[in-house]
Amino acid sequence: MKPTLLILAAGMGSRYGGLKQIDKFGPSGESIIDYSIYDAIKAGFKKVVFVVRESFLEDIKAIYEPRLKGKVELVFVTQDISDIPAGISVNPDREKPWGTAHAVLVAKDIIENPFAVINGDDYYGHTAFETLVDFFNMCMDEGVEDEYSMIAYYLKNTLSDHGTVNRGICHSNEGYLDKIVETIKISKSSSDGDGAYELDGKQHSLAPNTLVSMNMFGFFPDFFELTESYFIDFLKTRGMELKSEFFIPYVLDQMIQSNTKKLNVLESDSQWFGVTYQEDKPLVMQKIQDLIASGQYPSSLWS
After folding, report:
1. Are 230 and 236 within 8 A, CB to CB?
2. Which residues pair with 130 in a beta bridge?
3. Number of compact structural domains in the chain
4. Residue 21 lies in a domain
5. CATH number of the domain that 227 lies in?
6. Between helices 32-43 and 57-68, what is the axis angle to 10°?
């Protein structure tokens, strides 16, 4: 088995104020992506695929190609508004691509093995990658063909002190996901990690141990064909909207509700961290320094 790591790195970083994908957080100039790739290679991933925008493709390649040469197979693909199935009419005034599930789809022609999906600006921890490799091996050893997986984090371990965040709220039953709901603008409402969000003009609360998706999933290649069929339906109903987004949680919910696939919820009590706002950067840098001090990483990842 040769699992692939698919990194969603096409975001423009509007709230951050720059390209988070290439910002430096480690002592030798490492980005958050570097730590994810390091952990993935150590866990057994053999190929890394970046999904980026055409406008900064060369900047990304100039950084990661030299660093990863000889360490892992590396491929880059671009996400664009025009990457849609033929014969579908969409709003010509739309300015941004179609969201995370669309970003996965643009890699459909270059992934042939089990693959993990992650955000480029999130730190997940080495055990998460090992857990996904174990899941892939279990499915292949036991001939399981109708299951995918996700790494689920506790809400309290994923909130920002500097503004709101979007999270996929997970509802599970006996280890399998029942439903995942993309919830936007969740704010930290207490020091215990409670969350709050507004819907239809009303304030709603979330418990600190609520399971949330951080867009870390384990899929098999049949995901592409299934997702493309959902994407066609999505565009037919919402393609004229300027800001509609085809999220991975939306796709998974469709699969679950139709009994097409089951999704293993693999819980993690790790402290997730990422950069949504520029104010998050000092905290992320300190967390990385702490991981280096504990022996989790060398001070220079690739030397």
Report:
1. no
2. none
3. 1
4. yes
5. 3.90.550.10
6. 40
